[in-house]
Amino acid sequence: MKALKISLALLFSATFGLAQTVDGLPAAIPMVPGIYNTPPWEVPQITEINRDKARSTSYSYASVEDALNGDRSKSRMLLLNGDWDFKFAFKPADAPQDFYKQKVSGWDKIEVPSNWELKGYDIPIYKSAVFPFRPVNPPFVPQDYNGVGSYQRSFTLPANWKDMNITLHFGGVSSAFRVWLNGKFLGYGEDSCLPSEFNATAYLKEGENVVSVQVIRWNDGSYLEDQDHWRMSGIQREVMLLAEPKIRIADFHYQTKLDKQYKDAIFSLRPRLDNFTGKFIPEGYEVKAQLYDDSNRAVFAKPLQRSAESIVNEIYPRLDNVKFGLLETEVKNPKKWSDEAPNLYTLVISLVDDKGNLLEAKSCKVGFRSIEFSKENGKMLINGKVTYIYGVNRHDHDPVKGKALSRADIERDVKTLKQFNFNLIRTSHYPNDPYFYELCDKYGMMVMDEANYETHGLGGKLSNDPSWTGAFMERTSRMVLRDKNHPSVVIWSLGNEAGRGPNNAAMAAWIHDFDITRPVHYEPAMGSPKEEGYIDPSDPRYPKSVDHAHRLQNPVDQYYVDMVSRFYPGIFTPDLLLNQANGDKRPILFVEYSHSMGNSTGNMKEFWDIFRSRDRLIGGCIWDFKDQGLLKKDSAGKEFFAYGGDFGDKPNDGNFCINGIVASDGRPKAAIYECKHVYQPAETQWKNQQAGVLEIENRHASKNLEDYDLFLSFLENGKVIKSLQIPSVAVAAGEKKELNIRKYYPNLKTGNEYLLNISFKLKNNLPWAAKGHEVAYNQLPLTSVLEGIKISEKPVTVAQKSASGLSLKGTDFQITFTNGALSSYIKNGKELVKSPFLPHFTRPQTDNDRKGWKPAKKLKQWYNAVPELTDFKEIKAGSVYQANYQIIKDSASVSLTYHIDADGGLKVDYALTANQALPNIPKVGMQGAIANDLQNIAFYGKGPQENYIDRAFGFDAGLYQLDIKNFVEPYVYPQENGNRTDVRWMAFTNKQNGIMVVADSLLSMSAWPWTEANINKAKHTNELSEAGFVTLNVDLKQMGIGGNDTWSDVSQPLPQYQIKAGNYKYSFYIKPVASAQTEKLMAIYKKLK
Q1: Which are the catalytic amino acids?
Q2: pTM across the whole model
């Protein structure tokens, strides 16, 4: 073996001019001869030097028992995470050249894993679709600005590793790196998101060893990593040493094949052995395999076994291929793995010598499952059951650590998604840390595993260049080789947005042949020139990218993908695809949809009403999981989440990285609650409300609803008056069942509003959530909403009066109108209203508004509207007054009628008259300001999180109390926020007093500690300045938030969530209050009803 290794090194040296060491191995950096004297990181055909073949994640154990338990801390593994010596240079010419020859001193310390940009070296760069460096000239990268990080640390091997084969493992390095061990060149690797392993055995010594690493920020591989995320560098995943015997189980691959009834299975195993002894494997060495259930009981009657010699010397036929299973057996009715029931077994594979001594044992989790697509309706089938993809796109991100996530960080992400009813994560756009897949196996989270390449800034140029074929193939095949044993991986994805070409086809072909158990995905696999009707992109008939017709097949997608995949559909896009008469029966997946940038993620219910009701539609993946804000401080020390451009990075794409349904720090945002409800596995509706009969639908693929505890809660005017657990209801997957709950009703008293909450909760603790976790919920009306407002008008003293205003005085209050608007409200000497309440038609612009459909231009009459008082008149002396405003000349006007009651309360009747020829109205409502200290908010409406008319299905009406800090939603780029729909009343108080707004019908209300102008101007949360008052919006309604995308007209709300110009009326009542107690506030509400 050593002779062979040296020969290969000498051959490589002759080809690339490597410096030689005494034993014939390269000492330093190889250079490719020619005019450029090119380093390997500018040669696309060189992606690795001395790197071991990719393999599945597994550790070597000294006993079967330890392998079965799977605690890697008891394996032959030594972590090298922690502090390393570090030196940074802005370009390769300034980087240390010979530092690996001796121990360094005086260098900085840096944590490994980490991204050096977040440790104060160079800057992070955010670009969505353009390369972060110039010039763009593949495979070459800049020489004058290309950061280099040099690392070094020492270690001592465990004493019991003597005579073992030692592998140095890097989990992920961004983006190219060289490594030396004890002054000797060990190897080179590219691909920021897959492991690089090097055989370190020949370079190690007793006592202290020194490993040196040099990382180059940009290399030829950077042209394949043009993804929409922060561009950061360094050793960003774990570093470890792995010890294995000289004859080792290098890798293994299992497959499970279910029979046609999805009951029994064939378990097949293919081990791969390495022999580093330089001798033939002795007779009598054997590989053994046993499968264990979740109670650690052996499944096979006796272990599977095969001689090591026969595995190593396997003969491949000339006209066919070898059988996959070198070890194989039938398993009777194993528990199946699915996202709903992630049943796992443990495989222990061991190697014993000719005396029966254990050399090593390795293990992995096994899931028995199948994935296919129905020939009848194109739906996805897991174990024969229709399964939808409730998916999300996820980047590795932490606001402080960047890409260097801890195991706890990863676990929180996966748990959060599982708890919010997601069942698939697309690893956009690169393979994740191995621990991620381990968790997905365990929790029941399906994975679309995506190769680390995207060439967005070059389109499909490299996908059509054969000099890059090896790099494409390697990134894909190495991912598959590493992750092949994870049952959670149900789809392989060829990368993202790298055009279409033979390199894509080659990767798909390799996967299809290597792994016959999983489908292949790629977006875009669009256009098939061999088909009649194909239109090439140079043809004037070819749709523009902003035209949703470009999402149609042309005329069919490429043969090498197993599904039709599209980005960012409009609500009409699914039917456009389904109605193409091209004969394609493949499933349709919207692998990026519902662009959740800022205040967004509307229309989820409408999308899923379509997905569930049409053949071939299998679901989609929201873009995306987490805001990619990085924590930063301004000059005053105030923290905020930064985005593109905030570090001086140019060019940049600003806040286009802030697309999450959770915040940068992982806090769930309002949007994810809507997702949870739309994705929920049980849906309850009235079958016969009068008789108290529910219809319960089970949306599960295989799970029965009797597996959940079932709870009912009855609300009277928003307050829970009765809660109880009732017997679980048995509803089979995909079925519906009626349930009469009339016997559980409380006494329903007239003059009250009653609501019913139905909740399905976990019966037992699960790895991803505790007993009692709510998985599904619905709120249904038992009675009608209480409408109208009844007051007793009572004249009060007119203290001052003018043509446009007046001041009214009562025993302990004073109400002032200025220019026809309520401008001051003083109660017991406390001024509650601080600035006029006027008709208002706009909201702070959302990202969808500002960057997408641009309503400020399309609806500009309303954005430019300024109420102009036309007259202010007395209707009834001291009690009823009316102000009339022109809003848009000769086209729109508002009448406000004020009624003063005996308690000093004020009822406001709002009437808008608008010409129907006007554009749609952003908002019908009023805006004013109340005292700054009234920041404790109680309300009866949908909550507790913010909600909007097109994102309100996941929120129940009830009584909620929040301070204003938790009432608003602190979007990274400030915008419209904090709205609540279906509001019956809302109160703002301090410890002594406050003000209450009661609606005559279901209204929308919001409040901010800032002005709307400030929100529109601010670009970060630290730029929001408290106004000295609370801005209060009391609206009939505002348009929806939309969210199909954030760059075109498709981002606008659906027609049913827009407000057509016309006539609108509503009323509300304002009253000072002396208590924040909900009981007293509710009494006021009841009195008015």
Answers
A1: 497, 592
A2: 0.95
